[in-house]
Amino acid sequence: MKKLGFLNKVVFFLNTVFAVLLLLSYVLPYVFPKQFPLISVLSLTVPVFIIVNAVFMLYWLIQLKRQFMLSLIILIIGYKYVGAMYRISGESESREEGVRLMTYNVRIFNAYGWLEGNIPEKITELVEREDPDVLCVQEFYHKQEDAFNKNYPHQFIKYTTLNNRTGQAIFSKYPIVERGSLEFPKTGNNALYADIVKGKDTIRIYNLHLESLHIVPSKEHISVENPEVLYKRMGKAFALQHRQVEIFDEHRQKCRHKMIVAGDFNNTPYSYVYRQIKGDMKDSFIEMGSGFGRSYDFDYFPMRIDFILTDPEMEVMAHKNYSERLSDHYPVMATIRLGQAAPEEKEK
Questions:
Q1: How far apart are CA 193 and CA 190, in angstroms?
Q2: CA–CA separation, 348 and 345 (whole Å)
Q3: What parts of the sequence cross the membrane (predicted)?
Q4: What element of type H or E holds 321?
């Protein structure tokens, strides 16, 4: 520090602050949102801390100063967190056969005119062009029930108990042999499940839509909103998500099939919610994604809150993020090799 000028001493002080914040944020996935909802809000800032520390590291490297080691060590300690945010290379398409699953929060097909143009038609065209085998839709709208009839003979649409016009849906090219809905209390959100049959495999698909943080995706909007009100509202949403994940986790424990969990978690890979849902499952983005994997339109901030998680015995062969702005979310698709049938299925 003695060899540093005054400006660099100030920069290193700030570097130290952000390095400590990033280090502390590594424990956030283990903090119970129900007990500490406001602390859980900090999970949204982890990508910022990662980027800032990377910038500090480059700043010192350019000057050939050993201070770059501080941020480097912190980033290495949390290498899994960095990998959950950005992947250097991956595969967006697969030449091998597998189940192509897309998850997409369509924001009720632009029913209230947030975007210009014929959005429902464009969403339908995108799905037809990409042609997933299974499509999980969040914020489905009752006036669009015929949108995907052309390619999906097997469908499960369930509107929420608080609103019989919006809900979730699962569309499949494969037969659905069992289906159901997990109703979340005190909210308009829910989760669907459908058991699909492909060849000798029976796979359970979960389509989750967890409690929304109710953030308007605009820096301008957030800058004028009362920070205390915003903070408390988000903390309450995280607490509700915690309860919803408990309901989901209890339900999936009874499932005897391999499963794929997809949907809008309304939370980041650095949260307790994500850690509990993922468990030992594979995250398709971490397996085969590239870039930031942005799935939510928050100006230029790369938020990833939409996920496709697979059974650990399945193989993720490709992962694709889209840039078409037809909702406040972007669709996400993965190509998945199901693997061998479970023992109880072979015996049949």
A1: 10
A2: 5
A3: 12-32, 38-61, 68-86
A4: strand 315-321
**Whether residue 225 is found in the same domain as residue 293:** yes
On the question of pLDDT at 329 being above 90, the answer is: yes
Distance, CA of 344 to CA of 348 (rounded, Å): 7
Q: For position 163, what pLDDT does the model report?
A: 77
With CA atoms as reference, report the closest residue to 314 among 290, 341, 333: 341
* Among 306, 301, 264, residue whose Cα is nearest residue 289: 306
- Would 178 be classed as within a structural domain? yes
Q: Are residues 293 and 166 in the same domain?
A: yes
* Residue span of the structural domain in which 60 resides: 6-85
Q: Which of the listed residues 24, 52, 85 is the one where a domain comes to its end?
A: 85
Residue 90 lies in a domain: no
Residue 113 φ/ψ, nearest 5 degrees: 70, 35
CA 215 vs CA 17, 134, 140, 222: distances in Å: 27, 29, 19, 8
Neighbours of 250 (CB within 10 A): 10
Mean pLDDT comparison of 27-31, 300-304, 329-333, highest-scoring range = 329-333
pLDDT category of residue 223 using cuts at 50, 70 and 90: very low
> What's the number of domains the chain is made of?
2
Question: Do 106 and 77 fall within a single domain?
Answer: no
Cβ neighbours for 325, distance < 8 A, ≥ 6 positions apart: 115, 297
pLDDT, greater one: 211 or 231: 211
182 shares a domain with 215: yes
